[in-house]
Amino acid sequence: xxxxxxxxxxxxxATAARRVMARCDELARVTATTGxxxxxxxxxxxxRVNRLAAEWMREVGMTTRQDAAGNQLGRLEAADxxxxxxxxxxxxxxxxxxxxxxxIVGVLMALExxxxxxxxxxxxxxxxxxxxxxxxxxxxxxxTRFGKALLGSxxxxxxxxxxxxxxxxxxxxxxxxxxxxxxxxPARVGEAARRPDELVGYLEAHIEQGPELHRRGESLAxxxxxxxxxxxxxxxxxxARHAGGTPYxxxxxxxxxxxxxxxxxxxxxxxxxxxxxxxxxxxxxxxAVNIVPGEARFSLxxxxxxxxxxxxxxxxIARDLDEIMGRRGLxxxxxxxxxxxxVMCAPLLQDVIREGIVSTLPRGADAPPxxxxxxxxxxxxxxxxxxxxxxxxxxxDGISHHPDEAVSAPDVALGIQAFAESVLHLAAEPx
Length: 431
Ligand code: HGY
Ligand code: MN
Ligand code: MN
Known about the structure:
This protein starts with 9 loop residues before the first helix and ends with a helix. The protein has 431 residues and is α+β, with helices and mostly antiparallel strands. The strands form four sheets. Strands 1, 2, 3, 6, 7, 8, 16, 17 and 18 form a nine-stranded mixed sheet that branches. It has eleven helices and 18 strands. The longest helix has 21 residues, at 307-327. Strand 4 and strand 5 form a beta hairpin. The chain has two domains: 10-227 and 343-428, 3-Layer(aba) Sandwich (Aminopeptidase); 228-340, Alpha-Beta Plaits. The radius of gyration is 23 Å and the shape is globular. The structure holds (2S)-amino(hydroxy)ethanoic acid and manganese (II) ion (2 copies). The site of one manganese (II) ion has 4 residues, from loops.
């Protein structure tokens, strides 16, 4: 451990980190698919992890509730019951065949911060700070089941869109139906919304999901901003024909059009510094080995540091698709299923996160790294109602959205200290 530790004994931090790692393993076992980690919105697995999270929230002295959008919340009151709340947290849902730390480690680290900062009172615990502490375990950051990301945090931000009710999952279950089956009332989703005047801000610890900290040999970073993201479902229409009897000059092969489109996305985005485009899904229809695909569907996930750059690249991609599909006698259309503007992390919250990281470094060490997040986070939604700050933890090799996603216990211990110190620095700020 570095020489300069402030108010938290190293053994408490190490114990907290071990607890976080063990609970990441425990939550990884709550999955829809044995041998993989898969936990999607409004599923039985979602309900089970909410119960586990609520138990751990109560264990540190918080009162708990599940909100009207299925987010699990814990709250530790301040001495002044009318005090505003500092929100800490991340998400407990996952992508398909996920790693065990994306989102999860942030929720568990937030609980360890509460455990470090709470003070006993009348047989319970209280936040000794000028604000209440809340831990939010968001229910759907990834958008895995319905394609639209940030559903849980959008409800908290009061930006739920009633058009989303008709979104369907792979089985054709609508979001509305899934709400009802989970025991939630679609008509009351608005009750999850929080008022800006009751909040101090939102702080999230998260693995970097990229290689920069690994390459720098650093444990922690301040996040400057969260990438803007647009997601599309695209459809290409050609003509299904016999795979043997149809000569090439008569074909309108939708899969080849979509394949050229995917390569065009890579070519165009590679020429742009801060734009990243990914085709993660691609499907041919009717999908028989002896039929030329008459239809193809594919996804596009497009991100950028700034909204304008991202939108300009989308226009360039659309022009390329017009040329490709025109040349191949195909038609194409795109449906936008997600659009989140870039969120700048508040300067004050960047400062307190920086102070928190400095508390873990030896005296005289260089200033902590500052990184722009290419991954999306719940702060993109929460940023519309309160200030957002993020702390990144190194994840070796940067691999994420993959079972090999990793984080080290020593880095988690440093992250818990930095996170707790950040909260203390914020509490010391003038109201
Ligand atoms: O897709 C993302 O960037 C995030 O991990 N949901
Ligand atoms: Mn993710
Ligand atoms: Mn995440």
